[in-house]
Specification:
278 residues, alpha/beta, Rossmann fold, 2 domains, 6-stranded parallel β-sheet, 3-stranded parallel β-sheet, 9 helices, globular, methylenetetrahydrofolate dehydrogenase (NADP+) activity, NADP, EC 3.5.4.9, oxidoreductase, THF_DH/CycHdrlase_NAD-bd_dom
Amino acid sequence: MTNLMRGTELARDIVLRASEKAAGYTERTGRKPCLATVIVGDDPASVTYVRMKQNRSHKAGLESRHVALPEETTTGELVAKIRELSDDPEVHGILLQHPVPRHIDERAAFEAIAPHKDVDGVTMHSFAGMSFGHSEFVSCTPGGIIRLLDAYDVEITGKHAVVIGRSPILGKPAAMLLLARDATVTICHSKTAGLPEIVRTADIVVAAVGKPKFVQGDWIKPGAVVVDAGYNEGNVGDVDFDAVTDALITPVPGGVGPTTIAVLLEQTVDAAWRELDA
């Protein structure tokens, strides 16, 4: 029997605690923790996602500073804007909405984010910290995945986790966080041979490949835990949800997405407090 692992209630709890900490920060300083969101171009999905993050920020008692740049923005111009935000003492966290237009060097833009403001966990500094277990900020989606597994009492230690996808902001950090929790981790990607057979050995599957319904139902062994971190046009994940018959699985939407935003807000509030207490 398939059971759902929903992120909505967990996200609500995370945001509630973040709101309380944000209120305490505002009471002490007279200012709100500030998250700056940067978007380049007008991709409809990205615009909607950024607007959602802004709305959630306001509801949680955070200030949201929106920076919208035109499609033709160069790498140098984007890097300069991000460095400006990094130097602004009123900004506590910076989010660069992914993906950026193809002509921009996204990694150079990410690395312009000051490490103490990298609340989305996208810099090499944050990745190294995650890999060694000493990061101030985790990548938000992978961090939300771990919180979701814990909320549903999923045993990670000693389990075989298969991560499908090796992006630097999702697949790789998810693998590092699972490894840190003593899972045996296999990372699969576009060049992996025998992918279905590998996935069938997994106790935990994290699908982060960016292709709708890519993971087939008969790839999932009975009783496995399936985390669908994909979001594609038409509210479809990376897993063929209807074909999975015996698993604990995240729905799309309503699974990983809410926890991602919740962790982002939580880490922004934490960044504000760290700066105050430094």
